[in-house]
Amino acid sequence: MERFQDKVVLITGGGSGLGRATALQIAKEGATLVLVDLNKEGLEESKKEILTETPEATVELIEANVAKEEEVKNYVDTTVNKFGKIDGFFNNAGIEGKQNLTEDYSIDEFQRVVDINLNGVFYGMKYVLKVMKKQGSGSIVNTASVGGIRGVGNQSGYAASKHGVVGLTKNSGIEYGQYGVSIKAIAPGAIMTPMVEGSLKQLGGENWEEAGKEFVSVNPMKRFGKPEEVGYLAAFLLSNQADFINATVIPIDGGQSYKY
Q1: Any catalytic annotation for residue 158?
Q2: pLDDT of 84-119, one tens digit each?
Q3: DSSP states along 4-47
Q4: How many CA atoms lie within 13 A of 257 on its CB side?
Q5: What are the residue boundaries of the Ketoreductase domain, all occurrences included (predicted)?
Q6: What fold, for 8-189+234-252?
Q7: Per residue in 148-198, pLDDT tens?
Q8: Which of 123, 158, 176, 179 is catalytic?
């Protein structure tokens, strides 16, 4: 299939994890890619992997901090100036933050997590939606989390920010569906990405792999998800095949959130 032939897709957090996995998938299907990340080395590695698998792919890289509005506006403007449109937007960049009880969670850390995970998603939507509304078409996929549909102990900033992403998704989907724009969120569970590995190391230190076994024990499938499994879902949701899916959040967690 070439669902993304002649399509321009913008991906934040494109330097690793879910962003890279999604980029690898949709490049094979013809997408012109614009990858955004603060990590220059990660971006270069993503481009290298993409071109190794899909030598004919077009891949543009933009270094940006999604927590800074002016840098978000710049990556949107740069994409439109170069390619004339944005067909798909995987609004994916995020961090977990440090773990602590709410009473011990520092205000600075809370603000940092919210700035990246929630404000960054809002800034991206704000500027991309202007483009898509004018086009009369487009698809936005926001990365929330199971932490956006249920509580996550010791992660106040993360849970609050991801709940906010779900709210923004539903609200904006209601507003922009009439303009031919569909907006949805995904809620990954325990997916083995660098961010999740970092979380496990916070919990278990040198024994982080054992902590990982406990981490997935609440999952009916008793395993971590793979980044490419999320990439397959994100690719579908970004494609025209999912245009009628709007203003909703879709878990991809092996059943972890089934109680909620």
Answers
A1: yes
A2: 999 999 999 999 999 899 999 999 999 999 999 999
A3: TTT-EEEEETTTSHHHHHHHHHHHHTT-EEEEEES-HHHHHHHH
A4: 19
A5: 7-189
A6: Rossmann fold (3.40.50)
A7: 999 988 999 999 999 999 999 999 999 999 999 999 999 999 888 777 676
A8: 158
